[in-house]
Amino acid sequence: MVDSQREVEPGEHRVSPLELFFDLVLVFGFTQVTRLLAADPTWGGLLRGMLVLGALWFAWNAYAWLTSATDVDEGGVRLAMLTSMGAMLVTALAVPGAFADDALLFGVSYFVVRFLHLVLSAIVARGDPDPWGAIVRFAPTAIVGSSLLVVAAFFDGGARIAIWVVALAIDYLGPVVVGMGRGWRIAAEHFAERYGLIVLIALGESIIAIGSGIGAGAHLDAGTIVPVALGVVLVSALWWLYFDVAAIFARTRLMEAVGLERARLARDSYAYLHLPMVAGIVLLAFGIETTLHQIGQPLDIVAAVALCGGTALYLVAHIAFLFRATHYLFRRRTLGAAVLLAAIPVAGTVPALVSLAVVTAVCSAVVAYEAIRHRAGRTRIRHPEVAA
Prior knowledge:
Helix content: over 70%
CATH class of the largest domain: Mainly Alpha
Structural class: mainly alpha
Low-confidence stretches: 1-8
Number of strands: 0
Order of helices and strands: HHHHHHHHHHHHHHHHHH
CATH topology of the largest domain: I/LWEQ domain
CATH architecture of the largest domain: Up-down Bundle
Mean pLDDT: 87
Radius of gyration: 21 Å
Strand content: under 5%
């Protein structure tokens, strides 16, 4: 519940249809990363998939900060956003071949996406020295990081991966090294909503993975419906863990923060700590799809890590996200993550359906405990007007 003062806070605006339209490209990007993992279910494939996801995330993240600082759904800026979306779509199309035949296409289109963001930011900041100063500090790392992905296309094997790692390190460490300083402005409520919608999009990719795992024209009997039902319950539990109280907790804290404190909290809790959350969901999507393809067989180690470890990563990211925002440790989520990590070797010895059932049971148990054990606090958070 937001008080009237917060509702009229300068700079706040609703997430626009243009932003949601832009985010649809990221939906496709998540799907492409899952395809990349499915085509190469090895440790190397897992590493490459996560590197590509990291690049896509940082590019989207830059636009999320831009659109939170100002409403871009007007005039020439709108056209520039649509152009950026087109470049982002080309980048997503190149994802399956980002470390193969489409490496140069991925690198060039990614550079265009990042360059257009800087151009848009400069247009929006024109005449305002504080945000202009922030762009000047941020631009070198953005240009160098994205340029290195173009350079990586001319190398092979381990050298290409090493350049990718350096490029992403420059991107992600840039805001820490140059400092947030003045000029990093966000509309807190809009910002939190935008990241929540991306979590929702990622969870939607898991639903798509369930459908892909079953396949078109499959005979729908008990052997098919049971794993589908388990998958839906699991994804629903992950949705509950984020949107029931966690998102409200963090959003409230972000809205209470001001100035540099708000910018740093937004950087740490959302820009950084939502990445492992999304990575966990994408890994889970790959794990679910693999599980549904081999219900009666044990998972290989990579698929087991994706199913159990991906879900554990999601919970660990939640723990860190909430601790950074509220300084409160969610112990049952910590225990749930530990149990899921312990289940990885077991998943290699039991039928995949059993592994899916175990992961679903652990996440559902965490949800049930928090909802029942802390029902009074949950009511105060979700319905403060009733609690008052």
